[in-house]
Specification:
This protein is about 10% helix and about 35% strand. The chain is mainly beta and about 525 residues long. A hairpin with a 2-residue loop joins β16 (about 305-310) and β17 (about 310-320). The structure holds copper (II) ion.
Length: about 525
């Protein structure tokens, strides 16, 4: 987005190239009325080989920015819910280019699964099966990831190494071909908030940003707290996009897309208003399904009571006045209505090392109505999760690995793990089911990276060498950037519980992931270790 200092010489060359190429494209190919902005170049296979522009690292745009859409707050609402019935969730997803309503107005150059921004919320229970009919109506390849799910990463399930070709190609229009995605959710699956998005390496940023993302609720995070089962529940999908006054989305790779032109949306609404009664306890499940935005949530010094993180119930409730929500992170929190009045959920200023976010209002909270009898915030949420956390803490470490995250120009393919760029044909780490490992994640770059691994979640033991309280399992953790020459570090511990197959670990800033900050992990056969359960 903004100019990257190391990037300057390359950027200059790129700028010349962009101007030249866009000029040629505009004069030869595009009708003069076309308002489409230049986007990534693609080979016939759909893989990206270099970019016309470099997204976050694009050269600073010169001249006048396009006028931005004027946004006025619209009422709070939630995405449409699609629920499983009799153990099966049947749904058709047809990702396509088009337009969608964002904050009450229609915007072009969105990409959606079912026409809505964000996508529908899927409700499933542990033990259910998702049977999805998937019709790829994009002009490029794609696939689908169930972020945070502990399910098979193979075959027709949560397989991000799968390539789903377009159903319709520009050269020959064939009948719309659908494929199946079938995901069996284990009976003992953790219950909480998850999400879905495409995961085709090289194309993820450009598919998630314009709208190919939505929430999934698995079971009920309040399942083990019977006295709170009937409280008001909300799910909130956070997304960041740039909207132009002429009704177009600012392209993900446009030099005009920056923290200054992006606006933030809750379920597709700009600064919506929520209501709560004084003393009332509500469950808010918040998911950051943006392509690269970081939120630092605050309720004016009031406490967020965290009962779930990344779809995992906590053992014991923990509370915080601020919640850092890196890309892909989810929190399930209990919020208590303050005394009657108007309040705001703000995102506070946050320096990610590269992006410097300012403070802004995300939602308005109106507390009104008669006070309710205050419900108690539970101390213990899930004894079962607490036991599993203790077990994994006590597991002997079968192997210790170190992963170093580095940014090394030239851009855009500058994002390394252990000095390697992602190669879909290479297995980077081989592990075995039934084993427990510690990984030291080291960040030697000047920006934070949100680390994510598929299939098996982890506990975080240390950050920058200091012990941290372990409340719950996670599937995303921010690796802090280098400070005063000292790499940022996070020590995680992970037990490989179920499902053989190949999956990935990567940075969840999607531009970084697309530009190779990713590796393949092979979950090999179970090595029997009598001291472990599953
Ligand atoms: Cu990153």
């Amino acid at each position: 987005m903004r100019r990257h200092s190391l990037f300057a010489p390359f950027a200059l060359v790129l700028l010349v190239a962009v101007v030249a190429l866009v000029g040629i494209a505009a004069s030869k190919a595009l009708p003069s009325s076309s308002k489409a902005e230049p986007s990534r170049s693609q080979s016939a296979s759909g893989h990206v080989h270099g970019s016309l522009s470099s997204g976050r690292y694009a050269v600073a745009a010169k001249g006048k920015p396009p006028p931005l859409a004027k946004l006025t707050p619209t009422p709070y609402s939630e995405p449409k819910v699609i629920s499983s019935r009799n153990g099966v969730l049947r749904v058709t997803f047809a990702p396509h280019d088009g337009s969608a309503i964002i904050n009450g107005s229609r915007f072009k150059h969105t990409r959606t699964f079912t026409g809505t921004f964000p996508g529908p919320t899927l409700h499933v229970k542990p033990g259910d099966t998702i049977e999805m009919k998937f019709i790829n109506k994009l002009s490029q390849i794609t696939n689908l990831h169930f972020h945070g799910f502990r399910v098979s990463p193979a075959a027709l399930a949560d397989n991000v190494l799968r390539t789903i070709a377009p159903a319709v190609t520009s050269k020959s229009v064939r009948p719309r071909k659908s494929v199946k995605i079938i995901v069996h959710i284990p009976r003992d699956h953790e219950q909480g908030l998850y999400w879905y998005h495409p995961h085709l390496h090289g194309l993820v940023d450009g598919q998630v940003y314009p709208g190919l993302a939505g929430l999934i609720e698995v079971g009920d995070v309040l399942r083990e707290i019977p006295w709170l089962r009937h409280i008001k529940r909300r799910v909130m999908a956070l997304q960041a996009v740039g909207l132009r006054a002429d009704g177009n989305l600012i392209n993900v790779n446009s030099p005009w897309l920056s923290t200054k032109t992006e606006r933030n949306f809750v379920n597709g609404h700009y600064q919506p208003t929520l209501t709560i009664r004084p003393g009332e306890l509500q469950l808010w499940q918040i998911g950051n399904i943006s392509n690269d935005h970081w939120y630092k949530l605050s309720f004016g010094g009031r406490k967020f009571n965290v009962i779930g993180e990344d779809g995992n119930p906590v053992g014991r409730t923990w509370a915080s006045k601020r919640l850092l929500v890196p890309p892909a992170k989810r929190y399930s929190i209990l919020v208590r209505g303050p005394s009657a009045g108007t309040y705001y959920i703000r995102s506070l200023a946050f320096d990610q090392g590269f992006e410097k976010y300012g403070e802004y209002k995300l939602m308005k909270v109106v507390s009104r109505g008669g006070p309710v009898r205050p419900q108690k915030v539970p101390d213990i949420v899930s004894p079962r999760q607490a036991a599993l956390i203790r077990d994994v803490q006590n597991d002997p470490v079968n192997r210790y690995r170190q992963l170093t995250f580095r940014i090394k120009p030239p851009f855009p393919n500058a994002f390394y793990i252990n000095n390697k760029l992602y190669n879909p044909r290479r297995v980077d780490e081989r592990v075995n089911l039934g084993q427990t490992e510690e990984w030291l994640l080291r960040n030697v770059s000047t920006e934070d990276h949100p680390f994510h691994i598929h299939t098996n979640d982890f506990i975080v033991e240390k950050i920058n060498g200091h012990d941290v309280a372990i409340h719950n399992f996670q599937d995303v953790v921010s690796i802090p950037h280098i400070r005063h020459g000292k790499p940022g570090t996070v020590l995680i511990k992970q037990r490989y519980r179920t499902f053989e197959g190949e999956a990935v670990f990567h940075c969840h800033i999607l531009f970084h992931e697309d530009h190779s900050m990713m590796g393949n992990i092979l979950f090999g056969p179970r090595i029997n270790n009598p001291s472990f359960g599953q």
